[in-house]
Amino acid sequence: MAEDGASCGDSCGWAAAVVAMLAFGSFGVPIKSDASNSVDIDPLVFQTYKTIMCFLTSWIVLLLGQDFTFTPWGIVSGLCWVPGGVAFIYGVRNAGLAVIQGISATFIVLVSFIWGIFIFQEGVRSTLDATGAVGLMCIGLWGMSYYSSPEVLRHELGPDSSTSNNENTEEENPSANNIGYLNVQQEDESQFEDELQYPGNTTEIEVKQLDYVDVYGYRICRRKMGLAAAVFNGVWGGSIMAPMHYSKGNTGGLGYVISFAIGASIVTLFLWIMRYAYHVNRTGSFVKGFEALPSFHVRVMWLAGGTAGTLWSIGNICSMISVEYLGEGVGYSVVQSAMLVSGMWGIFWFKEVIGIVPRIQWLLAASITILSILW
What we know:
By secondary structure, the protein is mainly alpha-helical. The protein has helices at 2-8, 10-26, 34-38, 43-58, 60-63, 73-95, 97-119, 127-146, 150-157, 162-172, 193-196, 204-210, 222-237, 257-283, 286-291, 298-335, 338-349, 356-374, and strands spanning 212-215, 218-221. The two termini are 31 Å apart.
């Protein structure tokens, strides 16, 4: 690998960084696809598709000259990634791709910063600069959340625009109304009419405002639950690479990919066992407990789930290559531009942010966030 790196130079690092940016910024798109919405895909099911593809594609590193190595620290990383991934999927389904990716990436960087400074005692150029970067990050995070909120979007559209906007967005993009678990195709709405009790021309914005869930007796907006899930993904999943710091021998960098994939598979299986045990305890029957588990909808979901998992795995491998050739500062920072890629998907494909002014404001907030990462 060293010889290849010497002959390849920085060009390989930059190419890998761009690929990782595009892959990480796009892997969330299938979560809101027509296939996912048509079956109301369960977050753990979708995460399982990602884990399977992560495991299958992890062996590519053997073709890149890596020897097979395994460290139990991969299981610890899997314990961070899998629950965080489930939360990310829930967040995207209920609050949108653009804002969830931005919040998750921001908190991941923040948690990684805490690990590096306070745990691993990595030096910083200036405490003042670091404090300023965190401040900018908070401002950008607030902006991305605020300018994609239903209140701002409703103000932009005006009180009489719900019906016309719904018709326009459906003509421009059939996926425009894909938001949350309550998204169904127009022809299927009658199946859920009694449950949803929404007006006939309910728009994406109105769904965000009307859709609530009960949590221990409290009525909470689904969008807020989605934002909370993004924070959890960032805080919990932000430690995904920390265990690699403790691995020994040739198990760092690309040598850690297989360990990570095996660990993620073990954790995913464990979560399914725990979920099955919960249903068995609830129903009092092993058969009914199994029947209560969500379906994988393989015929519908194999492409969307496989695509998301493959894109994430490509992003993961390429980000490691980028860091290896360009260093942590340049390589890792470039990869974080993935939030702009996902923002473009959310804004222009899924119509999560409507109106020229809110879109510009969201992009400025995302740019401030990326600037804080590069600081």
